[in-house]
Design goal:
Length: about 120
């Protein structure tokens, strides 16, 4: 499985961005996809995940502001980020989890929120 992330950039606080993660390869084995982020000097943390059945989970810090969803073919996962805050700054990476526990990572995309 290959993952290609895009959509990062620089935005002012209160603004919005949408990240995309396009997946290719053996998608039939993928049980969930998600977004993680890593801020400078901090550990990587989960932002949001979506299962193949459409169930979503969010970090408390982004609930009500971020929405994760997938394309109809479930080959692309999006992260709509609204009301962005400076503390949302970081490198955002997408991940796919297979039904047998294999993890796949895409390259990171930088999100910078200015105050």
């Amino acid at each position: 499985v290959q993952l290609q992330a895009s959509g990062g950039g620089l935005v002012q606080a209160g603004g919005s961005l949408r990240l995309s993660c396009a997946a290719s390869g053996s998608m039939s084995s993928i049980s969930a996809m998600g977004w993680y982020r890593q801020a400078p000097g901090k550990q990587r943390e989960l932002v949001a995940i979506i299962t193949s059945g459409g169930r979503t989970t969010y970090a408390d810090s982004v609930k009500g502001r971020f929405t994760i969803y997938s394309s109809n073919a479930k080959t692309t996962v999006y992260l709509q980020m609204n009301s962005l805050k400076p503390e949302d700054t970081g490198v955002y990476s997408c991940q796919a989890l297979s039904s047998v526990g294999s993890l796949y990572w895409g390259q990171g995309t930088q999100v910078t929120v200015s105050s």
